[in-house]
AsmA family protein (Duganella levis), 648 residues
Amino acid sequence: MPLPRRTRIAIAVGSVVVAVPVIGAIALASIDWNRARPWLNERISAAIERPFEIRGDVALAWRQQGSILPTPHLVAKDVHIGNPSTMHAPSEMVSVSQFAFAIELLPLLRQRIAVPELRFDSPKLLLQRDADGKNNWTFGHDDQPSAWKLDVQRVVFSKGTVRYIDAMTHVDASANVDTLNDPRYGVAWQLRGKWNNQNVSGSGKAGAVLSLQQQTAPFPLSADLDLGGTHIVFEGTLTKPASLTALDLRLKLSGSSMERLYALTGVLLPETPPFSTEGHLTANLGANASHWVYDQFTGKVGQSDIAGKLDFQTGQPRSRLSGTVQSKLLQVSDLGPLIGADSNASKQARGAEERQPGNKVLPVETFRTDRWTAIDADVNFKAAQITRDKNLPIQNLETQIHLKDGVLSLTPMNFDIAGGRFTSTVLLDGSGKVNPHAIRATLKAAASHLQLKQLFPSIDGMQATVGEINANVALAADGNSVASLLGSSNGELKGAVTQGSVSKLMLETMGLNIGSVVLTKLVGDKQVKLNCMVTDFAVSNGVMKSRLFVVDTSEARIDINGTVNLGNEKLDLTLKPDAKSVRVISLRAPIYVRGSFKDPDVSVDKGTLALRAGSALALAVVAPVAAIVPLVSTGPGETSGCQALIQR
């Protein structure tokens, strides 16, 4: 019985539909694909807008690739991909001894080269960026884009080499890549080279399969690197590999100083003691700007703890750093490198070029103002407690670190201390606009109601003290170090201490060694009641000149006159003691404090001593009892007049 006409037509059409792909597959399999190399080279070059060439043999195989019909798999040997015409780079971007790729047939009708998978064997990859920011890994389009589009879904890596050259960050580093039998990672690599002119070395792992279509598929990364003495360890994923944008890493950093991170990140950080941190790093790396966030980090700087979040964004006219950093316990000694006040051994450990001279007290290490204009910053810093030793009661430090166009300000920088409050504002203009060779600095500070018994709780006799300290400082200066700034400063210092006690031990605890020597000359090493101390210095070109400097104790009133030269660190002070009670030991001779900050010289006026000793000898001939009269001082009594001094 003959089939119905419609059935015969359907069978015929179906036969044609099946026969055409079969005939096409047979034809494709019988083609000598080496003859097709020029066509492939031309079409792929047009699609990726850069030279593409298969120089070796080309073969075709049919494989099932997840679809109903098998797809052709081309295996090409000795393949080369050049750089875009906009790059000034003589080297190729990629050369591969052999790689295989599948091509879906139907998309070719729409001028789209769809490649489900690229497999590389012994690749040599060069990633390069010029000084003007142009790179060879961005497959962009020019004003007349090609009609052909390339769609690569997955890339499979094997043994090979990768070299990265970046003229913007001065990087030239190479990695040897090898396959790895690991459930998470597919390749391992060893790295050596230069990064910002510093040696970089290390090793790491990466996934073997890089998905370029499924942008949320994680591509695993891990590394252990050494960059100029800074240790970097990270583990995480790359989640948008098509544009090399999204990084999500667990990051550990450690090194001799945070300042060394500038060569790696371009982020301006201060000089510090050895540090270590660990936190969560995420990044979006755009072609013209990038955004990095280091969140939930914790760590140590010297003996101090730190924690917080930092946000770094590149852009114009300069990059910007913002965030918050907290410290539960901050050691005073860990602040020394900030201003170059640490030891020479510490300077050598953190790589500082300038050493502190043996005859200088004020730090001479220069500030690196050449980097201040590279970044803007707005970072809040808080420290719950600052300690020099366990008995120094400083709490609740807070400052806003603001850097814009080379001008650094700490506005304000305040903390609680000894039941009182220290407030200050600091402005350091390192932009070079005011002075191209130095910082223009201004300081305004005030200490109010500092309680003496809280300031020195461990010193005998201080617990009965009820006095306090109040002081004001206003200075302006030009210089490029702490020493040169103070040596050129202008302004004034005023302060008052009331109802305390003083001893050589207390002065040594405060670090005032000059004062301890003077006190020993006056009264020996014992506790003396301090009614008040009032100071008023005018500062001109680094020379502090006393307008009023009086120390009033239970034993004597001491008037101090003279100068303190901050420029050459020289002392020239004269102390005139006047005893208040009848004391045979009092000679009321002036005491001179001279010499340098490092090696002060304290002496008693020999002329006065000789005169008073000669008078005593003459009287001894006449009346032995009267011989002690020149050595006796009655003084002005207990009325100190402290209130009048403080109100001046």
User: Anything to note?
Assistant: Residues 7-24, 508-513, 582-587, 608-640 have pLDDT under 50 and may be disordered. The longest strand covers residues 319-331.
